Amino acid sequence: MIYKYTSTRLSLLLSIAVSVFISSCSTELTEPKYSDGDADFAKYIAIGGGYSSGYGDHALHLRNQQHSYPAILAERFSKASGGEFIQPLVNAGVGLGLDSNAMSILQISNSICGDPFITPVPADSIGDLSNATWIGAVIRYQNMSVPGAMIADLNKQQFGDPSPFVGNVFYSRFAINPGQSTVIGDALVQSPTFYTLWAGMEDVYSFAVGGGFQSNDSITTVLDFEASLNTITSSFFAISTQGAIATIPTPDNIPYFSVIPWNGLELSESEAQALTQAYAGINPNMVFQEGNNGFVITDNAEPSGIRQLFSGELVLANISIDSINCSGYGATVPFPSRLILDQQELGLINNAINGYNNAIRSTASNNSLALVEMQPVFENIAQGFTFNGATYSNGQIYNSVYSSDGLYPNPRGNALIANAFISAINRKFGAKLPFADINSFPSNNIP
Amino acid sequence: MKKNNNNLLQFLPKPLSKRAFQCAYYTIATLLFLFIICQASASGIENNGTAQKAMSLAGTFTGIADDASALYFNPGGIAFSESHQIAIGTTMLMRSTSFLSPYSGNHNLEDKTAFPLHLYAAFKVGELSTVGLSVNSPYRSESQWQSEWPGRYVSTYYKFTTTYVQPTYSILLNEKFGVGIGGVIGFSSVKDELTIPVSDGTAELTSKLDATTTSFGINVGLLFKMNDETSLGLSFKSGMKHDFSDGTIKYNNIPSSLLPGYPNSAKGSLVTYTPNTISLGGSHLLTKQLLLAVEFKYALWSSSDTVGVEVENYPDRNYGVGLNHENAFSLSAGAEYEVSDDITVRAGVGYDLSPVKNDYLNPRMPDADKYKFSAGGTFRFNENFSIAIAYMLENFTERESTNIQYNFNGTYKSYNHLVGITLNYDI
Q: ipTM more than 0.95?
């Protein structure tokens, strides 16, 4: 009898144990519920220039384009109301650059005087020109960003003209009606519910990247910029498209303008003395000291034609670091002025950026757009940061969020930019979108 | 069914209680069934499955210390032993942990099941003295994450195991006081693997550290039998410095441009600590059949700050894992009920505070405060031979953390299931 009683008890206990056990099998946690808030991501269109197209490594190439920030954003939008997002993808391979060049890849190069170093080299002598083939007949593309597009180009018919030297091949290849349609027109015809606009980079950076030397790439005036901007935003406003708009960051945080510091000329005491003596007869203001010194540049504004860089002036990254280290570049051989941004050029650049950004901010507020401030994003990258165990900085090519050109982001950089958009969109529209995991995207291929 | 039993009976050494057998049979079958339906992985730095009697009481054993496993839990208790005792067993450790990334949903620890063994042997060497040997794995942790998971730059695999071998001498000071002291030789091993954010385009660089070492400590205990009903126990287990000075670190998928900075293989070392612990427990025989026990344990984890990994001749490859542990206590209570001469059942509950501060929570050891629920029993087959079985559920509280060293954010949730068996033989 006692046994029976105990065994019933025991089986009861066991069945309780079983149910506790089974309920304890899964540790899976409930994901937060994502939502679009007051926004609607059903049809998302991205407008912009090279930064928005996925351009990187000196070209529009497949891997970077697949991870453009609009593509990353669209994937995050799909957690809420977002649908599919079609990009005008180029063919796999070496891609196509603004100068018909191929993408660059990182390679080990032998130094003239020191250790081998990593440097970007073109993957081929010319880009893949088959990418110019028109692909706009049937498919409507949602990433309407065009490398090299100034803001005014977005409303110009001839911008899509495929004739040589007239339009821009990166638009004509996917324009609905090349030479007739415009970027904005092709966007509006798709009845977007949401758009992102990051235009104006080319309007100032074409000048900056060329060292302020190319007169045909002069900076768009603030007035012209504002006019173009208002045309664009009001045409989207007219069809009640919500959106987000981004400001323009200054060049000083971008590796292309900052990896070689203005005072990167490191000299020993004897080298400093020798250099001071060598320039004494040309420009007596040039005095070199042991340690860091401003690089020597040519400057037509100087009576002697030669001076040292001032604090704050920027050296472009297409100067060979090996030539600096080994061939007296920037010391006995002055940098040509087209490879630096001097104070006057920086003044023009920064004034334009300020003006553009004020226009962007007021447009954002007038059209109820989410405003994405890019300066803090680029400052944060420049200062270096740690994310999920990876430490990123501008100084090293290994853990950079920039592509091998030092100017355009790699997929991880695009994820950071996408996150800035997400943050602004969540705030403006009360949406609840998850951020992108930067580390889940490809980084630069290290040889 | 009956026929089956009879067949099986033939294999057992002596006539045994049919009732004990049936209970044991059903319980083991149930536990086995539970194991099959709920495969998971192993871990938890402190292994609570070092003996089934203690485990079924949620670890509440310092104030009881009345079987061979007292050698480990409270060496003072073994002095009261009236026979030679040998116990041998294993506990199956199954851990499941999920990590909820704010970016990409749930990521689960990969399945690993471990079967650490334990052995306790105590021999009377006179009226008052007992010598013994305890072999077990009191600390054990294993976490295997998927190679592409968001935390791969923090950790992809971590394993820390210990085997403590403890020769022990125990003596009855008088009929109420037993004291014991053991020297502990700790054989420990560690593996630490992670991914480094550098890729040649095909695969990311990985780092694998593998090391073993031997360390030393002591284990002292005191059991005070106030009267026939009530006992108090106190034990101190010294912490150990596990100085892995002779390990190997290997790097895979090194881009050729980085070869000067990364060796394919090099000598790697690290130092890690297990804590000093003090346990205070009491037990009281409420009725002839019912024993109640409680225990308070304090683990002085704060001596471990950082696990520093050093790579010989490659100082740029050194890395440190910030721990910054704090002292932590745990409380537990257990009850033992003697159903018959052959069957004793037990249950226990406990609560352990995690020594890991929130800012330092690391996927190598996704710890959290936890509740322990346990049950088990001993089935005596004859005068000499008995089997103890036990099950414990460690329910870790859900824990959100941003590790400040890695800027790594997410929420962890873990369960740890322990199922074990210990065979006891008394002479």
A: no
